Amino acid sequence: MSLSDNNHPPFKPREYFVLTDAGKPVFTSRREDGDSDTLSCTMGLVQALLSVFIDDGDKLRSINSGELRITFLLRSPLYYVCASTWGEPESVTRTHLEYLHLQILSIVTAAQLRRIFERRTNFDLRRLLNGAEPFLFSLLSRLELDLAMSTSSLHCLQLDPNLRSRVADALVPITKMKDTLYIILIAGGRVVTLVRPRKHSIHPADIHVLVNTAHAPSIYNSPASASWIPVCLPKYDPATFVNAYISFLWKPEDNGIETSSNAESRGSSSSSRREDGRHPPNLSSDAAICLMCIGGGGEFETVRSWCDSVAQKLQSQGTLKVITDAMESGKTHYSVSQLAIPGLRHFVYKSRPDVQITFPTFEDPYDSRDEVRRIITMYQTVYDALHAKSGQSGPLKLQCIRTNKEIVMGWITQPFELYIVLSPRLPKTAVINAANAVTRWVKKEERNLLLRDAPVF
Q: Does the N terminus or the C terminus of the chain have fewer Cβ atoms within 10 A?
């Protein structure tokens, strides 16, 4: 596929709406000072439009008008809507709406929703979600640029495998913690390690919901050293809550050192509110180190004491300091220049068996927010074509887009998926050689880049 012109229009903020099937507003990403009457009219119009299709035994997936696409997702009793002019495939905004649904289910379970609306079809759900809006705004900000969420994968912290193994061994729970589901250590917004029962795996979407919840301002900025949060993991069990113990072992402001994530947040947001009225993502919280213990029982004191002992162990052994030093020095990231591949600008590598991705930092010419948005949208376009996510006749093994600015190629095999950005001047043979070189480099470095052989109990 060849595109002669790649001048992307300005990235106007996407708009998101959630309403009940009775037309009651639940959530909107619009400015808080927006006209409430206009919002109610918009919600009513959406509900009426969707009802026409439902009455005919059909579903409305999207409406296209010029650059604008309006995508709909029906998860009764809730309807989700996204309006976007970014030019991304329909599957991208549909994925955003699915995540929005999962985040709401983490607060109000599917069983609760069903019972509530069976009794009162015109129930105002905003009463139950009061105070939960920051979680939803935070999620939408993450979805904008999070490649792990786009590819339904985990993004792990680059770390020495021996160090990762020592951390994992420290997180194996004691026998008294009988109802423990998952223990996760997050650093820099990425997974360091994950310990789980032998019979249970965890869906990436549930991890993204947990990470977003833990790093929301109300949790991160809490004066308490740790928090207990009831949370529903929709992919694990959409009908019940589990208990999440969230403890921040280290925060970047603890020692006054500015991390790369902190600096980035200051560069991308000069005020506490973005141009679209949303709160910006809390990137300083993403730079922190967070321990999460998820369980279904009521062993609150046992879990708290055990987590405290883990924190002390990581501290006394110097493990925590090694991780924080690596984060502050930039050793947990890598540059595309380290691969020394001519014409290579960026890539995303997904290990399919591990359901994990790795990619270098975004650098020149992709060092501005809009350029990152543009190249991520191109990645999403290729990903959509390979996986036939938007109604194509079938999946592809290889897809290449050539523009006047770059070449973007996607390649899918049994063990991996590769999305690669290169100079537009490279011939076809050089593109293939570069792709092969990237896979060889990742294979050589995978023990540092990916989480392998995490302990089970």
A: N
CA distances from 419 to 289, 410, 434 (A): 29, 4, 11
Mean pLDDT of all residues belonging to the chain: 90
Dist. CA 387–CA 419, nearest whole Å: 13
Report residue 127 as tokens: 């009463």
- Taking the model in full, what pTM does it have? 0.90
Are the C-beta atoms of residues 151 and 356 closer than 8 Å to each other? no
Residue 258 has pLDDT above 60, yes or no: no
Q: CA separation (Å) from 374 to 370, 395, 409? A: 6, 23, 15
Domains belonging to the chain, first-starting first, are 15-135 (3.30.450.70), 154-329 (3.30.450.30), 336-449 (3.30.450.30)
Q: What does the block give as tokens for 314?
A: 């990581």
CA distance 73 to 76: 9
Cα(162)–Cα(319) distance, rounded to whole angstroms? 11
| Residue 167 in this model has a pLDDT that exceeds 90 | yes
Q: Which residue(s) pair with 2 in the sheet?
A: 402
**CA 287 vs CA 190, 210, 260, 318: distances in Å:** 9, 16, 8, 19
Strands 356-358 and 154-155, how do they pair? parallel
- Alpha carbon distance 212, 138 (integer Å): 7
Amino acid code (one letter) for 309:
S
DSSP 258: P
What the block records as the tokens of 411 is 């390649």
Write down the residue that tokens 């997974």 correspond to.
191
For the chain, the helix, strand and coil percentages under 3-state DSSP, each to the nearest 5: 40, 20, 40
The mean per-residue pLDDT over the stretch 253-279 comes to: 44
**Which secondary-structure segment (H or E) carries 379?**
helix 369-387
- CA 456 → CA 196, 205, 208, 298, distances in Å? 5, 20, 21, 21
Among residues 287, 103, 119, which one has the least CA distance to residue 213? 103
Identify the CA nearest to 80 among candidates 105, 68, 98. 98
Which residue spans within 208-274 are E strands per DSSP?
A: 226-231, 242-250
